Amino acid sequence: MLNLSQNRKPNDKSSFMFHIYALFTVAVWGATFVSTKVLLNAGLHAVEIYIYRFILAYILILPFCKRLWANNLRDELLLALGGLTSGSIYFIAENTALKYTLVSNVSLLTSISPLVTTLLVGFFYKQEKPKAGVYVGSLVALVGVALVIFNGGMSLTIMPLGDLIAFSAAVSWAFYSIILRKLNVVYDALFITRKTFFYGIVTAIPFLAFEPEICDPAVLMQSDVLINLLFLGIVASMICYFIWALAVKELGTVKTNNYMYLQPVFTLVLAFFILDESISIIGYTGCALILGGLWLSEKLGKK
């Protein structure tokens, strides 16, 4: 049974911190592309990076949450599905897609997840179907995302296999958002986050069999590798997954996921300051459209 208290309209003042949580999380996740690239260049494979970061996050969060099991088998299976959709499927699909299509295509297609989430909420929760303004704002923000991604003037090339895999990552994250919504009614964010890491690790291990080789563990002790792994495991995983769950519980699934549209913006800004990449007028326009789309979704969604 749906607990409607989860979907109450939060007081603007009391929910301000949760907006900051969502914004901080998306900013960090926007930076993970840089860290992941460093690790890939050091010789680690995509599945290894994912497993290492989730193992680190799980070990660090374990002392704060000793509870082992959910209240019943159904909830335990939901937790396992959460680990699968937000962990192994999402990250492995995203990284695999890069082998078969352009980086720009992957970035654009995975950024569709907030819109897919909005559609799923409307489908599963008829009585809470988002208003038309939410869809309008989402589409405006999505156009902005496309412009940010194509900041460098890249052209969109359709590559069916890779594009389909990238889209599946977006759908996977959207389903995780729905699962998280259900679990938040019964369990605290710390328990949900710990179980997400656990099942994310368990379901990813079989994918190691498809890796050409396992990187020498000695590589993990290199300073640049260690620093980036610690960032991915502690900040991007342990802290961000936890506060993201808190934000979803307080602000709602659709509103929180709309912040995901800002992820390419943070990546663009970081690339400007760290990698010395330029920002074109297309990029600036995209940023403006993303912010405008989020404003429209917030304002029109209340009417």
Describe this structure in words.
With 303 residues, the chain is mainly alpha-helical. It has one domain (10-300). The chain is built from twelve helices and no strands. Helix 2 (46-61) packs antiparallel against helix 8, helix 2 packs across helix 9 (223-251) and helix 3 (73-100) packs antiparallel against helix 7 (160-184). The longest helix has 30 residues, at 12-41. The radius of gyration is 19 Å and the shape is globular.
Proportion in β-strands: under 5%
**Which spans have pLDDT < 50 for at least 5 consecutive residues?**
1-8
Individual helix count: 12
Largest sheet: none
Straight-line N-to-C gap: 27 Å
User: How many E strands?
Assistant: 0
What is the 3D shape?
globular
Given helix and strand content, the structural type is: mainly alpha
The domain count comes to: 1
